[in-house]
Specification:
The protein is mainly α. It folds into two domains: about 1-75, no CATH class; about 75-130. The chain is about 80% helix and about 0% strand. The chain contains eight helices and no strands. Helix 1 crosses helix 6 (about 55-70). The two termini are about 25 Å apart.
Length: about 130
């Protein structure tokens, strides 16, 4: 859905922080797609490029995300809602990774501190945004 929002909104593509956007996506193909959209001169240029090289994934991903975006657009600020959802997921992935390291006894002190901070934020229901 994030890639679909980037596709639809050229102002968002210009103003979004590429590092933040890409870090919220767990799928490498979606990370590549978001990076391409953020760095392209226009979405239309990217569509032509993907068509020329025969890559159908980007447009399929954008179309699939578009369905979700249609639901989000009923809200006042769909981008903020989506970023909040993706941020919570990103923090949960990091929490789970650190939990595994802790259970194996391989976590460093800074990782333990980060784990505790993530746990506190996720449990409070305020896992939105960045830490």
């Amino acid at each position: 859905a994030l890639c679909a929002l980037l596709w639809r909104d050229c102002d968002l593509r210009r103003s979004a922080d590429p590092v933040e956007i890409v870090s919220m996506l767990s799928d490498a193909r979606l990370q590549t797609l978001a990076s391409a959209l953020l760095s392209a001169s226009s979405a239309e240029d990217m569509e032509i490029y993907w068509h020329d090289i025969g890559d159908t994934f980007p447009m399929k991903a954008i179309a699939a995300g578009g369905v979700y975006c249609d639901e989000l657009e009923r809200a006042h600020d769909p981008y903020t809602i989506l970023v909040d959802i993706l941020s919570v997921r990103k923090h949960k992935r990091e929490y789970d990774l650190l939990k595994t390291k802790l259970s194996r006894g391989t976590a460093a002190n800074d990782e333990l501190m980060r784990f505790q901070k993530l746990a506190m934020i996720l449990k409070s229901g305020k896992g939105k945004g960045t830490l």
